[in-house]
Amino acid sequence: MHDGRFRGFTLIELMLALVAAAALATLAISSYSSYMERAKVARAEQDLTWIESRIALYQTTNDALPTSLAAIGEATLLDPWGRPYQYLDFTGLAGKGQMRKDRNLVPINSDYDLYSVGQDGATVPPILDPVSHDDVIRANNGGFVGLATDF
């Protein structure tokens, strides 16, 4: 028998289902983007370790540090965000102004700096500065490779 009422979902029930689906999608997208960023940082760390090994080989062979990443054939290597890696040889450097520095403004390396400017593409020498927090750095003369915030 038909009692005159339609069976199905009301507009409110459909809207609640859509809100729940949107909330779940937002969580999934946020989690995925966080995962992708961690993967990019891990790749930058691997690249820095690779470049560091190439620099060590060059230094052993030539008894000097390379003047640029081009000297070791890595000038075209880009970080996961599409930017070139940064290298600064301290040989003959006048002053410590360009060197990466820790929270006490002490240089984090004594031989050379090697880093990625990170996702935002901006950096300043003190790694404590918020602009440099997403940089992937080499510190302690290679004893540390990772995010500047983890150093």
Walkthrough of the structure:
A hairpin with a 4-residue loop joins β3 (136-139) and β4 (144-147). This protein has one helix at residues 11-62; strands at 86-89, 112-116, 136-139, 144-147. Strands 1-2-3-4 form a four-stranded antiparallel β-sheet, covered by helices on one side. Helix content is 34%, strand content 11%. The chain has a single domain (38-150), classed as Glycoprotein, Type 4 Pilin (2-Layer Sandwich). The longest helix has 52 residues, at 11-62. By secondary structure, it is of the alpha+beta class. The mean pLDDT is 91. The termini are far apart.
Q: How many strands in all?
A: 4
Q: How are strands sequenced across the largest beta sheet?
A: 1-2-3-4
CATH level-1 class: Alpha Beta
Number of helices: 1
Classification by helices and strands: alpha+beta
Give a short synopsis of this structure.
By secondary structure, the chain is α+β, with helices and mostly antiparallel strands. The protein contains 1 helix and 4 strands.
Name some characteristics of this structure.
about 150 residues; alpha+beta; Glycoprotein, Type 4 Pilin; four-stranded antiparallel sheet
Q: Would you spell out the secondary-structure blueprint of this structure?
A:
Blueprint: H1 11-62, E1 86-89, E2 112-116, E3 136-139, E4 144-147
Antiparallel strand pairs: 1-2, 2-3, 3-4
